[in-house]
Amino acid sequence: MIWIDIKWIPRRTRNLTDFGKKRRKVKRNSSDVAHPRTFLGVPEKGSILFALNGTQAPVFSNVPPALELLSNITKIYLDSPLSTRVIPIIYILAMAVGMPANIAILCMLATKLRKVSSAILYCSLAVSDLLLLLSLSFKAYYHLHGNNWALSEDLCRLVTACFYGNLYCSAQTLACISIKRYIAVVHPFLYKSLPKRTCATWMTVAVWGVFAAGIAPELLVQQSYWIPEVNRTTCHDVLPLKESTHILLLHSSLFLTIFCLLLPLVVTIVCYSRIICELNRSHHDWSVYIKASSLVFVIFLVCFTPAGVLQLSHHIQLFLGGTEGLYMYFKAAVCLCCLHACLDPFLFVLMSKSAGSRLNFKPFVKMSVSLSA
């Protein structure tokens, strides 16, 4: 989200011909000016002219509220190849690979997997990844059209909520899976005594409950704004978070970053570290499972750590009144999270096959129970 200073422009009901002939000045005063959300700048004194003449305002009968950019960084990002070419290409590749792969995993889980507790968590992850990848189709369209949102405000809210909500949902589900594997390997007898199906169900319900609560602020506030300096309508990239209508979104975004992205990241790091250490201390050869676990762990770190750290740093800067330049790097880092959504099915297959190595060590009950997770 790009920080800007905002001037609210009242909507007028006029003919296109009248807009072509006349220009109206919009008076401003200090009470009309709100602090920016993402990209910063200096409020322009005076007035800005808007006319539906094809140069300054969009030719819509329902024009979204207008915002004034405060920084050239915003314009550079909106016009850059990063946002108009690189990011949408990554989104398209993630969709092309991830959607059929996740659908295939759902079909396999529904027909072949016998362990219901594992099926519940993996189905939740596959559904979350599918919704995330589905939202990428609209975001790719938005970026390929020069970061110009030509669709409705309601759809902008829905796509934004679906994108970020399922991003957090995937991270939390992966953390739940890592906890399940940690208990199975490090505390196998406890794992064997647990009601695994009930635990998996409640973990899934909790994750989707947080998802529902997390997307509510995104659905309740205006997400699309007309930016006259660049002659386009942005979706979520430029928001007035210091406005009373958007303060809740700012705080909820920071809360979700910490507890739904960074906390799952820390939990996953601790769990996989303990799993690998426990298996390395064993007198038996678990090299296949260790390598598979290490690969899953490293891919998770590479995909989620940059986005989590950059988003937290970005919000801290905004709260402290600093610059907003980290936002464009965060947008690039989020692409890695999207790539993880298309890799999840392949990592699931990899872990399933490596866990099958337990059959070679049937006499060792402890490890047999552990790796069955």
Automatic annotation (TrEMBL):
Gene3D superfamilies: Rhodopsin 7-helix transmembrane proteins. InterPro entries: GPCR_Rhodpsn, GPCR_Rhodpsn_7TM, Prot_act_rcpt_3, Protea_act_rcpt. Its main location: membrane. It is a multi-pass membrane protein. Disulfide bonds join C156-C235. Keywords: Cell membrane, Disulfide bond, G-protein coupled receptor, Glycoprotein, Membrane, Receptor, Transducer, Transmembrane, Transmembrane helix. This is Coagulation factor II thrombin receptor like 2. It comes from Takifugu rubripes (Japanese pufferfish).
